[in-house]
Amino acid sequence: MKLIRITTTDPQAIFDNTIQGELLLKPRSRIALQSLTLEQDDQFIVIDDTNDTFTWSSQNGQSATITFPHQVVSYQNFQTYLDQFTRLLNDSVDFDNTTPYNSLLAMEWQVALNQKQKIQIEHKKGVVGEHQDQWTLGDDVDKEDSNWAVGASVIASMEGYQYNMLARKYTSKGVGFVRCQLNKAIFNAGGDQRQGVLIGLSRTDLSQIEFGDFTENMVDYGLLLTLTGGAGGGDYKTQEKALVSASFTDLNYVGEGDADNDYMEVMKTGTEVIATIYRQGGLVITQVIATDIDSSVELFPFVVFHADEDYMKITKLRTVVSPFENLENVATKTDDVGVGAPPMPSPGRTNNFINFVTQSLAEFLGYNNIREPRVGATQARDIQYIADKIFKPRYFVQSMIIEMLNMKLESYDGFPGAEKRKSILAFIPTDNQERITVYEQTQNFIDLNNEYPILLRNIQARIVQGDYSPINLIGQASMVLLVDSD
User: Fold this and answer.
1) pLDDT tens by residue, 114-133
2) How far apart (Å, rounded) are the C-alpha atoms in residues 116 and 121?
3) Is 194 helix (H, G, I), strand (E, B) or coil?
4) Domains of the chain
């Protein structure tokens, strides 16, 4: 029995040890692993001025660029980085509400590790529709024909917020919205002080809220129509919780069911939330409600009625559910057309590309090329850019292989792509550990099946992951071998 210790400091755990002397292995010798110690290193990339930008396009002739904060990204914090990547992409979706069709409307980006352990950068566009089954309806709220309203029952006061509609799904994180058209908007001289309707987006998860528990503290970004007895019959204000702004424009109401009545909209686009009134003749009136919005926050649409159906009705209620909520069997509403109607998503495919600008970031994330596609653009409505290589955080490593490089061992592997004889000395379960220490109480000897004596002056081996991809070694690895050559 012979004992041999070999060591390496090679970053990819390749052993190449020369023996000063003559080690003779007799015919039919066997070899086994007695012990192994090593520590894996983090791979990392430094994001600085040389590689801090990423460019994308999904709109013919236009592109957007995001800038990453300067930081060190490693396998330790990669999920935080992917979340940041997603947020910055959704921050950069800059919608133009003056165009009748827009490829960015209803868009949401997502950067994640897919089931094949590859980075997947993708965008989808949500479905614009009423999504009637995705609303929780409050007191007496109902739909008649295409109109939503509160039934004309005996109501003591509508100053509160219980006459509401709460969306159970959040809207698209790039460009998401809630909008409607006024069907009826009449001031009731004998009614409450606050009359009209409020639409908006809430940072509260409304899927967990009963209609009676909705309060003004959940009104994060609102557009309030207040009906009055004065000229114009009402005015529009923004509302953030209890804070209601001054009027930014008057109501334009032609008559019940008239196609020229105003459209109301609250939209999250990029890092802003904007209130918009779309009006006959193509007039678009906007008011910024908030800036510096965090695109990672889920925003839930809501509607609150402050008057019953004798005075207040809305129609063409539209929102866009996040496309990553995977709704089934829904189609985009296409009847919101005409001069003065809000813009709709582009129905067709557009030219798409992404560009990492520098090779270092692309390689770190597993992409062979800095630009996808390498030239030109890919025509698509929704698109996925999937990395070429597996992105393997160190704690995803479940096993390692010790392979002898200059010895022919009687061992075989059925791993796809390696279905043949391989000189494998041992398979090592790692249990996602950083430091690996193995001591075999019982050695499993592998035959060399050497017919003639072998004069061994050099031993070469390597340690790889279970799929034969390299590991990342820190410091020195040490391996002790036992040779049965008696």
Assistant:
1) 999 899 999 999 888 888 88
2) 14
3) coil
4) 2-40+397-484 (2.60.120.1100), 44-125+349-386 (no CATH), 128-330 (2.60.120.200)
